Structures are given as C-alpha cells and as structure tokens.
Amino acid sequence: MHFRQVNDQPSTFVVILEPGEEAMSTLVAFARDQSLTASQVTGIGAFERVVLGYFDRGKRDYQPIPIERQVEVLSLIGDIVGKGDDLKLHAHVVVGKSDGSAHGGHLIEATVWPTLEVVVTETPAHLRRRFDPETGVALIET
Q1: What pLDDT digit, counting tens, does each position of 95-106 carry?
Q2: Tally of structural domains, the chain
Q3: Region of residue 108 (left: phi > 0; alpha: psi -120 to 50; beta: else)
Q4: Is residue 13 in some structural domain?
Q5: Which CATH number fits the domain that encloses residue 15?
C-alpha cells in the first residue's frame, strides 16, 4: 500500500492497495496509522476474490456470499469509525463479473488484484457506533 495526502482541510488521502493485500485490514491499519477516528471511503479497482454479506434479519448476522474469481470493483463506499483496536471499516461494494453481471453487499473480506484505489476523507464530526439490540447491528450515533 502507498498513499498521498491530497488535502489538509479536511484531511484527504488517496490510498493505493497492491496485489495480494487484504482490503479491510489494510484500510483500517492505514486509518489507525494516520490517527483518523472518523472517515468516509470511496473506491474502485479489482479483487481476485471477495466475500460479500447480506444481513439476515432473523439470524441477526451476515449471510456470506463468496465470489472466488476476479471481479471489478464498480463502487466501494463506507466509513471507518472508532479509535485504536476499536477502529472498524463498514463498507458496501458492488462488483462486476466478466459477463457484466453485478453483485453487491456488505464487504466482509477481499483480496486485491491488481489494485484498489481508495479516497479516504476525514469527517468533521466524530462518528461513533453503538450496538442496537433491536436490529443486532452497530449503528452510527449522532
């Protein structure tokens, strides 16, 4: 991974992930290294494999949807929120297969190939998540 800061107010970075890097952990580590506690992320690129998730309301858990082939990242959007070991990436992604079909969902894990280009922008208000027992999901508090 390499990056460049492209703006100071708000702090904005272009982060380039390289082949073989795990997208979720790499982006969280980047945010931790930059002392970011609340950021928005957007990205495009490709994965050699990805696991999407669909939230099963009855089970209150994500149903994994593995895709074991190269896909294009058509859209990645989310946020990185928290501090230290509590820093979490919550992202949704739409990926495209070679036949033009698209699949989307919660990003659970993904291996980059050949690249993932992500813009990380610090948000002015510090976002926090709290577990909501009614839905079984950690929701952003305002």
Answers
A1: 999 999 999 999
A2: 1
A3: alpha
A4: yes
A5: 3.30.1330.80
Mean pLDDT, range 15-36, rounded to an integer: 97
Structural tokens at position 59: 């089970």
CA–CA separation, 16 vs 60, rounded Å?
33
Pick from 35, 26, 33, 71: nearest CA to 52 = 71
How far, in Å, CA of 57 to CA of 60, rounded?
A: 5
AA identity, residue 29: A
Q: What is the pLDDT of residues 76-121, one digit of tens each?
A: 999 999 888 889 999 999 999 999 999 999 999 999 999 999 999 9
Does residue 129 sit within a domain? no
Could you tell me the residue range of the domain that residue 108 belongs to?
2-123
Report if residue 43 sits inside a domain. Answer: yes
Question: What's the pLDDT score for residue 83?
Answer: 82
Distance CA 103, CA 59 (A): 22
pLDDT at 125 over 70: no
pLDDT for res 114: 98
Which segments within 1-142 are labelled E, that is strand?
Answer: 2-7, 12-17, 38-56, 61-67, 71-81, 88-96, 102-122, 128-132, 137-141
